[in-house]
Amino acid sequence: MKTEIQNQLNWLNGPIFRIGETAVTLGSIGAAFLIIMLTIVASKIVQHIIFKQLSKKEKLSKSVIYAMNRIIHYFFIVLGVLIASESMGIKLSSLAIIFGFLSVGIGFGLQNITSNFISGVILLIERPIGVGDFVTVSDHTAEVLSINMRSTTVRTLDYLTIIVPNSKFIEEEVINWTVDDPRIRIHCPVGVAYGSDEKKVRDVLIEVAHGKKMLLKQPKPEVRFLEFGDSSLNFDLLVWTGNPENQKMLRSDINFAIAEAFRENDITIPFPQRDVHLYPSPALEKLIGQKGGNDIART
Fold first, then answer.
1. What dihedral angle (degrees, nearest 10) is formed by the CA atoms of 288, 293, 296, 297?
2. If we measure between CA atoms, which residue out of 162, 103, 113 comes closest to residue 135?
3. How would CATH label the architecture of 128-176?
4. CA-to-CA separations, 265 to 36, 205, 227, 255, 256, in angstroms, rounded
5. pLDDT 10s digits, 31-85
6. What are the residue ranges spanned by the domains of the chain?
7. What is the DSSP letter of 14?
8. May I ask the CATH class of domain 181-299?
9. Is-above-0.90 flag for pTM?
10. Which CATH fold topology does 2-109 show?
11. Helices (H) and strands (E) in the chain, counts
12. Where does residue 284 fall: left (phi above 0), alpha (psi -120 to 50 degrees), or beta otherwise?
């Protein structure tokens, strides 16, 4: 019996593989796994405490607290890996050798993953975007739900969840509608027929803007006379809102109100018109002269 137990212990403590001069055993792997799990649990506890304490401070936004929690989580993961490596008998010099070999693979096969990870760290430190921000990236306008190690999760106005690589937010142009000031200006262009009273058009457009409760009173709405178009006099109604995520819906409501107000005030919105001029050829003129206009009309 003792011999069997001793053999099992010897198998447990026997080397499975070697890293340099260090023999890695099954027991050391189990201890390393336990250490990493404990660091993850410790990370969750510390994040919960910090979130609870910082949430009481009104000056800190949720995006700042989220970024701090993610950085703390990464710190605990790195710390856990280092402690687990020491428990396995793997020294930092041995890890440097391993990472030296891995760097070749990272340079070829894991380049995008590395780029996205570094971009995620930059996003958390510099905070050009944060959780809850309303952004436009890669032709997608959406709310930021989370910033992870490799990607950022956003949700569009159609409630579509999109996973965007972190590098997109660093390498491409990104519109952050809510980073400093959520107010944005909405353009509502409209054309009226030639002969319309320009001042009346301006007054009607301003009245439409004042009738929308979801628009801001300051800055005040304004109307600009843009140009004398081919078929219309072109104006632009400029209004302000504090809810950029509702800009398309607001523009639609304003267009409905403009159409109704123009009908009530006999202001015409023209459709494109083209004048076509027909010039008869010399042969046709000669034929008309020979047969007469009536004969040509009958033919």
1. 150
2. 162
3. Roll (2.30)
4. 73, 11, 22, 15, 15
5. 777 888 888 888 888 877 777 776 666 666 666 677 777 777 777 787 877 777 7
6. 2-109, 128-176, 181-299
7. S
8. alpha beta
9. no
10. Helix Hairpins (1.10.287)
11. 10, 10
12. alpha
